[in-house]
């Protein structure tokens, strides 16, 4: 348990009455004392017994750990020759692939900063991120490169490609970089643990997505957290990864963390149920990370799935993104009795740290997100009074620890000030309580972000687009519950007088401007949008109204 020895801390709950802080009950993280070390060097120096690092699920191509680090050395040398230096931002626009981690590690080893974007995003959305993050180079595929038209950024092409004629400057291909012998002339600069490493964009509710700056120290702490987790399997671990590597869940755990752990990651470019199940069967995968809607689908179609696919190798499920109900967990365990469920809670702002279950015993506590991550501290704060609460009291969860973003949001001091206080506490925006045994339970969200299949959809971004429609006077977007996807965006629209604007027309207007997961899938027309005297949308009223229509 990480704490000052003079504090009187309840060993059962981890709660300290003198300062109202909950301390992690897990063993403290062991972090490198060397001030100058990058996360790539840290991961490469870790001992492990693993042989195969990554497998391409579609082609069967395998990369050993030796292959990975040889490729990282070659690619980083090529990037250095292209003039990439410490602090430069490099953009990745690509689906999951076994080469995604190689690009990330190569960039990080130079002290440059990695930023990523969702391949489903529109050119408008990608363009906004480019304007904000100012990358100097892009890694992308030939099929996605047209989304960069007008950016004038030099491109390194990934994967199969022929002649490319889209007006952008192609400065090389990843295949060529990997095959090239390291030059030995790489320009090396000392990387401090506190230097920026990643710039990941997290959806917000008071504006559009914000860039979260994580340091090398944040990533090292995250990797150590993953390495410290107990294995529930006796044999070698193999994980199926279809979760997007541009997200902290996919990047942190499966592009970086499992590499340090020595586990095998079987990579799918995206989620497709049949491909996921075929991959588990073909490669005898032992662990499946997912989000709750997929777990629900596994339950609902259990008989058909077990008749068609051999899932006998599967030992554990890791679920994140939203809480699982006791009923869903019990039904899953009834249908798949040999598979254990582990849950977790994390944010982009906490670099994947927060809470998790590690053991069979911990997983048996239904509904919990788990115990606080190693070296993590927490407060439960009353949103109205600001008073820190004790055990079994519900309030906003505040977190502090080595994985919490230090620099805050990129070029956004106002958002940073609202999320981080002067004592480095991160206000998560989630209503939670911590029980007598130190387990975290997520009750509800203070934040208004919509969770669609694990993707985050900020209502304000959709509202801003709706306001540009000439026949819309006012609009509000709220989450609408759905068993299959979790939530989807629903719009309440106040039309101009005499307008005949239809539900389909509203949905089509938005669908042309945003990624598929952000699309509005339900519309209701109202005489006015309910608001507070200060002009804030009364979303709770609209959510209640939407629920009454179920």
Automatic annotation (TrEMBL):
Residues 461-536 form the AMP-binding enzyme C-terminal domain. The keyword Ligase applies. Pfam families: AMP-binding, AMP-binding_C. SUPFAM superfamilies: Acetyl-CoA synthetase-like. InterPro entries: AMP-bd_C, AMP-bd_C_sf, AMP-binding_CS, AMP-dep_synth/lig_dom, ANL_N_sf. Keywords: ATP-binding, Ligase, Nucleotide-binding. GO terms for molecular function: ATP binding; CoA-ligase activity. Residues 48-406 form the AMP-dependent synthetase/ligase domain. Gene3D superfamilies: 3.30.300.30, N-terminal domain of ligase-like (3.40.50.12780). GO terms for cellular component: peroxisome. Belongs to the ATP-dependent AMP-binding enzyme family. This is 4-coumarate--CoA ligase. It comes from Vitis rotundifolia (Muscadine grape).
